[in-house]
Amino acid sequence: MLNALVAYAAEEGEVTNPLIPAWYDIIWSTVCFVVILVIFWKVALPKMKALLDERGAAIEGNIAKADEAQRKAEAALEEYTAQLADARKEAGEIRDAAREDGKKILAEAKDSATAEASRLTSSAHAQIEAERQTAFVSLRSEVGTLALDLAGGVIGETLSDDAKAQAVVDRFLADLEASEAEKASK
Fold this sequence. Notes:
single chain; 3 helices; cell membrane; about 90% helix; CF(0); ATP_synthase_B_chain; mainly alpha
């Protein structure tokens, strides 16, 4: 095809370079380029710049939001960690207080049990003493009656006078206690 162009140019008598366009092509190409450049400069470029600015602002806003969320998360984590430490400390204090209270309750229970045992022991001693006294009086009365009956049988008389009978019984029992005391001292 290059040969055909060279042949055509040789026929016309004008030798031109096939790589350089004609002057009217250059002018119209320049006019079209300037029109497209002006339209691009006035319409497309501002819209594109506005779109890029909007996206940049959105990205910066999202970055700021992400930074704020990160700060809040770190603050929440620190607060949670502090609360957890406080809760552990409080649990330790409660556990120690419970141990101390347990020791106090145990000591109070021991003291109370000791006091109750002491009271029961003294109550039992008092009851035993009261029963001993009752038995002693009852025994004395029975021994007195038996002694009077025996003495009445030996003497041959009945000792019906209560004052006399009581005096005889008291003397007999006193003699009996004195003889037992002598035996115990020997």
